[in-house]
């Protein structure tokens, strides 16, 4: 069927990955089918990220290279969405004459019609921001893509960000904070569980700020929101849901109720990704993070008291303007004191339009690189020590699919979010497990990035319906 196959290239965070899923679903409902490679597609969409300059530059190099793809077959169409699209809008159409349409982060629903228009030769850009809750009500997963969920799914609970950290472009690309009514979230969770989803990850730019504006104004009833910990408790009761995760929380919104939820809710996973950014009070203040290192430590201590073997992971930025060696050493110290299981570390990247873009005292590139490597070295040994401590333990893994090692080898994650590759059995055969199933495995080996486990014989705990 000519003109009806799409391919989406996705960069950036889980929110973008989920937006691409939503977009694919809309297109399936519109009669399109997906192509696993750009070469098999008539429509190519790029879902962009602008969190750091590297991610943004990726778009420009992709678009340059796609001139040839477009001229490879008549009628091919290219669309750009996501955070770069939201920010720069139709100037992309001017700069790249072979680009057909641009859609912002609030305009996924318009894509099917923009695409049809593009196939008639119209070039459109839609980047308007909306406060409408309609954006959360998307069609049910189309049967054509349902099988790809493999036991886990994202679930949007809030979007946007009102925190305006000095370094961050997200409040500009994702707009104002808006929370989805709890009823729709719980219904979606039930529906997912009925379709074999065992694990949901609640998504929001500051996910644990869920409902806070309505609550502060005494409007939570009209808005249909609940305190975040209560939302988790409702989801904990959804039949068939074995695992609940959430990302990314902001330290400021870790109240006692949320910490206690970790102690009391059976299905809430013993893993929290809690972005630190810096371990120096001076830097945290300049970053406008609104917590101190002691407050951060108080939260992680509280979580460890609630769930003693909780796995904590984080994000750290090095080389923020004005960061001195002393500040950096405080970050290293805090990373070690908390004992993060893993961290994503980044060199500060100046984003035009953010407050920090105007700050003096830039840290030189080679110095930022040195700090990054020193931090990553510390993290590597923390991660390896955590992984080694797992050897001999039995854990439940949700099987995701083939591991990066290939050769039919499967992998999955345990409740602590550790990546576990399944070892072949004694006879060298691939273990008998299917994506979407939960299996018990014994950890037999540890590497810096993952664990190796062997399947404990026994029934899988239910599979995809
Ligand atoms: N430069 C470097 N890293 C950044 N992040 C956000 N903005 C920037 C920036 N300007 C990092 C933060 C955030 C993660 C998603 O990306 O650590 O938590
Ligand atoms: Fe960016 Fe800060 Fe909002 Fe996170 S909380 S999305 S770092 S502005």
Salient structural properties:
465 residues, Rossmann fold, five-stranded mixed β-barrel, 16 helices, binds 5'-deoxyadenosine
Polypeptide structure, described:
Helix 11 packs parallel to helix 12 and helix 12 packs parallel to helix 14. This protein is an alpha/beta fold. It has 4 domains: 122 residues, Rossmann fold (3-Layer(aba) Sandwich), CATH 3.40.50.12160; 124 residues, Transcription Regulator spoIIAA (2-Layer Sandwich); 112 residues, 2-Layer Sandwich (Transcription Regulator spoIIAA); 62 residues, Beta Barrel (OB fold (Dihydrolipoamide Acetyltransferase, E2P)). The protein contains 16 helices and 19 strands. The chain has a 6-stranded parallel β-sheet with strand order 2-1-3-4-5-6, with helices on both faces. The chain has a 5-stranded mixed beta barrel with strand order 15-16-17-19-18. Strand 15 and strand 16 form a beta hairpin. The structure holds 5'-deoxyadenosine and iron/sulfur cluster. The site of iron/sulfur cluster (SF4) has 10 residues, from helix 7.
SSE arrangement:
Blueprint: E1 5-10, H1 14-29, E2 33-34, E3 43-48, H2 53-71, E4 77-81, H3 82-88, H4 91-95, E5 101-103, H5 111-119, E6 124-126, H6 143-146, E7 152-156, E8 158-159, H7 170-174, E9 178-179, H8 182-194, E10 199-203, H9 212-216, H10 220-223, H11 228-236, E11 243-247, H12 256-264, E12 271-273, H13 281-287, H14 293-306, E13 311-318, H15 325-338, E14 342-347, H16 365-389, E15 394-402, E16 410-414, E17 419-422, E18 438-446, E19 451-455
Parallel strand pairs: 1-2, 1-3, 3-4, 4-5, 5-6, 7-10, 10-11, 12-13, 13-14, 17-19
Antiparallel strand pairs: 8-9, 15-16, 15-18, 16-17, 18-19
Helix pairs in contact: 11-12, 12-14, 15-16
């Amino acid at each position: 069927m000519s003109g009806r196959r799409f391919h989406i290239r996705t960069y950036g965070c889980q929110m973008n990955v989920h937006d691409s899923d939503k977009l694919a679903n809309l297109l399936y409902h519109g009669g399109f089918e997906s192509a696993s490679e750009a070469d098999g597609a008539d429509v190519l969409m790029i879902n962009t990220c602008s969190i750091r300059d590297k991610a943004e530059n990726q778009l420009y190099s992709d678009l340059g290279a796609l001139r040839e793809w477009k001229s490879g077959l008549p009628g091919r169409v290219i669309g750009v969405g996501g955070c770069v699209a939201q920010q720069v809008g139709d100037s992309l159409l001017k700069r790249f004459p072979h680009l057909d349409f641009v859609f912002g982060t609030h305009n996924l629903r318009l894509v099917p019609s923009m695409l049809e228009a593009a196939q008639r030769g119209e070039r459109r850009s839609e980047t308007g921001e909306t406060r409408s809750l309609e954006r959360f009500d998307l069609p049910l997963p189309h049967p054509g893509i349902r099988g790809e969920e493999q036991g886990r799914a994202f679930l949007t609970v809030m979007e946007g960000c009102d925190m305006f950290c000095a370094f961050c472009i997200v409040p500009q690309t994702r707009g104002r904070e808006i929370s989805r009514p709890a009823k729709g979230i719980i219904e979606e969770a039930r529906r997912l569980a009925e379709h074999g989803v065992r694990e949901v990850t609640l998504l929001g730019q500051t996910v644990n700020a869920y409902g806070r504006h309505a609550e502060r104004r005494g409007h939570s009833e009209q808005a249909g929101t609940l305190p975040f910990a209560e939302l988790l408790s409702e989801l904990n009761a959804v039949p068939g849901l074995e695992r609940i995760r959430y990302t990314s929380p902001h330290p400021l919104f870790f109240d006692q109720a949320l910490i206690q939820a970790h102690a009391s809710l059976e299905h809430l996973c013993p893993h929290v990704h809690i972005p630190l950014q810096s371990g120096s009070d001076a830097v945290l203040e300049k970053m406008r993070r609104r917590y101190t290192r002691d407050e951060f430590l108080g939260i992680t201590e509280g979580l460890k008291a609630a769930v003693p073997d909780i796995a904590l992971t984080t994000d750290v930025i090095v080389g923020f303007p004005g960061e001195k060696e002393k500040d950096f050493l405080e970050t290293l110290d805090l990373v070690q004191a908390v004992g993060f299981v893993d961290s994503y570390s980044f060199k500060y990247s100046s984003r035009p339009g953010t407050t920090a873009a105007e700050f003096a005292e830039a840290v030189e590139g080679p110095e930022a690189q040195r700090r990054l490597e020193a931090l990553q070295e510390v993290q590597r040994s923390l991660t390896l020590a955590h992984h080694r401590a797992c050897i001999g333990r039995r854990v439940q893994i949700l099987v995701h699919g083939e591991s990066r090692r290939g050769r039919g080898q499967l992998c999955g994650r345990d409740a602590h979010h550790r990546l576990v590759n399944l070892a072949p059995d004694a006879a060298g055969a691939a273990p008998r497990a299917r994506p979407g199933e939960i299996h018990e495995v014994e950890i037999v080996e540890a590497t810096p990035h993952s664990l190796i486990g062997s399947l404990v014989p026994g029934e899988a705990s239910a599979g995809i319906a």
